[in-house]
Amino acid sequence: MSTSARVRADACPGVFATHDAADGPLARVRLPGGAITADRLLALADAADDLGDGALHLTSRGNIQLRGVTRPGLADRLAKAGLLPSPSHERVRNILASPLSDVSQELASALDKALCAEPELAELPGRFLFALDGGQGDVAGEGADVCWRDGAILLAGDDTGLRVPAEHAVDALISVARAFLRIKGTAWRISELADTKPLVKDMPGENREPQRFDVNPGLPIGPIGEAIAVAPVFGRLTSAQARAIARAGNAVVTPWRSILVLGPLEADTGLVADPDAPSLGISACIGRPGCAKSLADVRADAARVGRAPRAHFAGCGRRCGKPAHEHVDVLATEDGYLVDGAFVPVGELAETLATLAKKGTE
């Protein structure tokens, strides 16, 4: 781990501090653990229609963004829906939880309440990320600053050797967050600290030899017991699709831009429920015209690609929304794309990615 001096302010967007995108203000709504009730999903769908661009945009942290929010009143709507339990903490409620683990989901709710109850933790950087992994290894590999993985405490993905039972998991993660605030200096993330030992020093728990855990990111698309996992193309959920999910019941938004619907979903929603659908392997930033920094309409170009390996299309070097796990890097240039650093004209993208996909199965 290395130190890193941050010379600019933390501009991570929220509801009160939006981001000025080319298509209008962008607001990010935190969903701790990704959990959202049907009525809250309806409130977001209404807000998207009345105040924004008519869609809910899923993020790689299991949150939802509203784009083009040019009309006032969003904060009041979300507060009435219960989506802003602590305005002072709204940008720091960054909590991932295993979608299929009841224990992780319950802990995420408890952690959110504990986080919002401590005024000092409102000063955490907007990029600081908590995770609660039930042992599946799904969210443990998503770049969290501090993760409880079925008892193990991980810092920036590395096992500390400390073991804490579920009943003390929330206290342990809150303790790490407090300690980070005390020693962080200009750092935004635990990975930027030269020494992480002070974060868990004297923390109650059992100490073992640190181990290396496997990770297994993602959620299987399709039926899962009485639930079903679906994915909107490029993470863009229309307000109509959101209402269809709400009619089915509560849901969990995942960091893989998919949604676990906890009830019977009606047919013909346009949501991807086929685990073999080509679009599942491809993600993309918003691109043109939504982002002024983008060099291409990356979603339009990505939509023309058929068979492909897991790939992320980015309109500029910031690579917004890129997956935490292994993928092919497809970066826009003025006259084409760099595919893992090699230039490829737009017209040859589909063939190039299909070739890479074929090699990956050999």
Automatic annotation (TrEMBL):
Protein keywords: 4Fe-4S, Heme, Iron, Iron-sulfur, Metal-binding, Oxidoreductase
One Pfam family, short name: NIR_SIR_ferr
Top-rank taxon, per record: Bacteria
Domain Nitrite/Sulfite reductase ferredoxin-like: 27-71
SUPFAM superfamilies: Nitrite and sulphite reductase 4Fe-4S domain-like (SSF56014), Nitrite/Sulfite reductase N-terminal domain-like (SSF55124)
GO molecular function, a single term: 4 iron, 4 sulfur cluster binding
Name assigned to this protein: Cobalamin biosynthesis protein CobG
Organism: Amycolatopsis azurea DSM 43854
Native organism taxonomy: Bacteria, Bacillati, Actinomycetota, Actinomycetes, Pseudonocardiales
